[in-house]
Specification:
This protein is an alpha+beta fold and about 300 residues long. It has helices at about 5-35, 40-55, 125-135, 145-150, 170-180, 190-205, 270-275, and strands at about 65-70, 105, 185-190, 210-215, 220-230, 240-245, 255, 260, 265-270, 295. Strand 7 (about 255) and strand 8 form a beta hairpin. The longest helix is centred in the N-terminal third of the chain and has 31 residues, at about 5-35. The termini are far apart.
């Protein structure tokens, strides 16, 4: 049966109208991404990242995390057995214990001179690594260097370190070593106080900064100092009361974690309890890290 002439004229119009709608949607979508309307740019970049991760997953390279157990607070002394009639040997006079005094330690006096923000909202690990390199005199605090550093992630990434295919704490140690700062290692701890005390001892011993994995492992802080109720090198039962931090997120505001703090802010225990949390990532399980506090700790002295 022949199609009525009116309908024949309507079909081309509907086709043209449909093509126009598709073109308009493409333009609106592109504009939304360009102007980041409603977070469209972030959603688009995350979608691209997921597709890329599925097509090109990171290698399954081995990593090495160091489990740190609490230091003993007392040392037992064995009493030697004596033969009948034998007198105990003379012992030296006991060394008096040092006074227990509060300490305030910070490696830097002008935090802004050692700070750079993450130029991409997902580059906190890159910026933290860059700041540590700069404190060792191995990198400039420039956006160009930060972009170059991030571009090398393929050399250091591992699925065991980051199931997202991006920067993890092990990648930071490899990047530091590649730029002439060896000796950093990933350490895990059962408690926040253990982690902060070990970081404080490393800072005092090496005069080098520590990287803390905050926000359940989603973010990186550079720790340059601390306050404590005693010297961590003299007392095993020291209590760390806060840390000095360079936060690459500054000056951004997080919808979950709130506004970031300026470089060198002292983070008291309330702030540490809020921000420095046990590792737990949504992308999957990390058997050696889940439920533990993570830090990237120096073992060698700060380079001149």
């Amino acid at each position: 049966m022949a199609v009525p002439s009116r309908r024949r004229r309507l079909l081309p119009r509907l086709f043209v109208f449909g093509v126009a709608l598709i073109a308009l949607a493409a333009v609106v979508g592109t504009a939304a991404i360009a102007f980041d309307v409603g977070g469209a740019r972030g959603r688009a970049s995350r979608l691209v990242a997921r597709v890329e991760l599925a097509l090109n997953p990171p290698p399954d390279r081995p990593i090495e995390d160091v489990q740190v157990t609490p230091r003993p607070t007392a040392k037992a002394t064995a009493t030697p057995s004596l033969a009948p009639g034998e007198t105990p040997p003379a012992t030296a006079a006991p060394t008096p214990e040092p006074p227990r005094e509060a300490v305030d330690v910070n490696l830097i006096t002008h935090p802004k001179d050692h700070f750079i923000t993450e130029i991409d909202h997902e580059w906190c690990a890159v910026a933290a690594t860059q700041m540590v390199l700069a404190m060792h005199g191995k990198a400039p605090l420039t956006e160009d260097f930060q972009a170059q550093l991030d571009a090398r992630i393929g050399e250091w990434q591992s699925r065991r370190d980051s199931r997202n295919g991006v920067w993890g704490p092990s990648a930071m140690t490899l990047a530091l070593d590649a730029y002439g700062v060896p000796g950093y290692e990933v350490r895990t701890y059962g408690s926040r106080q253990d982690a902060m005390a070990d970081a404080a001892r490393a800072i005092e011993t090496t005069k080098a900064p520590v990287i803390l994995l905050t926000w359940r492992g989603a973010h990186s802080w550079v720790m340059t100092g601390f306050r404590a109720d005693a010297d961590p090198l003299l007392f095993d039962d020291v209590r760390i009361t806060g840390t000095y931090i360079l936060d690459p997120w500054y000056p951004r505001v997080s919808s979950i974690w709130g506004p970031s703090d300026p470089p060198g802010t002292f983070q008291d225990l309330d702030n540490m309890r809020f921000n420095y949390l046990p590792w737990k990532r949504p992308e999957g399980e990390y058997p050696a890290r889940d439920g533990l506090f993570i830090a990237v700790v120096p073992t060698q002295p700060l380079t001149p």
